[in-house]
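Title: Comparing notes on inverse folding

I've been comparing how different people in this forum approach sequence design from structure. To keep things fair, I'm posting one structure and asking everyone to reply with a full sequence. Here's the target:
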């Protein structure tokens, strides 16, 4: 399973590679588009119950995060960042005499933010520390399906205000490829109704991203 420790170990290997492989270069006015994955909260809770009514299996808060991001360097030290991610908040399956019922819940942050690079001595280098902040919406989706003699589907969406604070390091692997390690903390207001058994998913997050850099 993906863990914070495994991401940190991988980032060390990337840092070593970046330090010996990439030449210094400017990123001002360039763009990036990439994938990011990581862990959020790590609230893993797996339960299987067998009773007279059947079998019930619940996986809650897997913590696995995945998404896409776009960035644009306005200046060498300042970049715009837009990201869309998703975290599986809950998966519940119940098999009984009346049929099969499933419940899935996903929390998806849509964030607009900025990255500030420091210190000045790292501008143009292959290893660039940064601080980051973003704000946007936390969108929760829950789908319940009951299959039996009749199939019933109930879908529900909740939206809350959310944001992210943190920092990390960008590793410029070549002119067109960049890796990034970020540690942050998600903050959000409560959903009006629970999604995946919870109204709030504020908590720590570690992500590793791989991007294609172009333009400029």
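Reply #1:
Here's my take.
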């Amino acid at each position: 399973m993906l863990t914070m420790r495994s991401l940190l170990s991988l980032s060390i290997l990337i840092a070593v590679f970046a330090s010996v492989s990439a030449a210094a270069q400017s990123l001002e006015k360039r763009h990036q588009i990439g994938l990011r994955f990581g862990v959020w909260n790590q609230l893993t809770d797996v339960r299987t119950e067998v009773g007279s009514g059947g079998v019930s299996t619940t996986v809650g808060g897997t913590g696995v995060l995945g998404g896409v991001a776009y960035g644009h360097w306005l200046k060498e030290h300042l970049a715009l960042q837009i990201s869309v991610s998703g975290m599986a908040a809950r998966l519940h399956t119940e098999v009984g005499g009346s049929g099969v019922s499933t419940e899935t819940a996903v929390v998806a942050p849509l964030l607009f933010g900025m990255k500030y690079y420091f210190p000045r001595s790292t501008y143009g280098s292959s290893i660039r520390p940064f601080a980051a902040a973003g704000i946007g919406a936390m969108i929760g989706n829950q789908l319940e399906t009951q299959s039996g003699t009749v199939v019933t589907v109930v879908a529900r969406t909740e939206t809350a205000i959310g944001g992210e604070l943190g920092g990390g390091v960008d590793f410029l692997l070549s002119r067109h490829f960049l890796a990034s390690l970020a540690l942050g903390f998600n903050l959000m207001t409560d959903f009006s109704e629970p999604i995946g058994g919870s109204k709030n998913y504020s908590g720590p997050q570690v992500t590793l991203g791989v991007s294609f850099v172009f333009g400029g």
